[in-house]
């Protein structure tokens, strides 16, 4: 068994697609109409046959509440691995990304947390 798709709730699929592809650098794999929304997935440019990230609309009240509560509590919805957190932090700052936690060493890892502009906090981690 393996993970093939994981999803995050987003407030606006177009805005999320732009942020996750143009700002973060993920590659769009699927963008298919699905009722009033779309099935939009992205993958890492280094592993385009790897796990897909689904930009899931938060149109259900439970999804909106879940997303809102996590954000308010400062809890990241997902974690992305990077080679160098400080380098990625500097690159994203230049793109206007707002961080809630600057690069911080925690034992054997370094983390940082940013706002994805779509209702979520996302953590980056360097092992």
TrEMBL record:
VOC domain: residues covered: 1-127
Q: What is this protein called?
A: Glyoxalase
According to the record, the signal peptide region is none
- Coiled-coil blocks: none
Instruction: Give the matching Pfam families.
Output: Glyoxalase
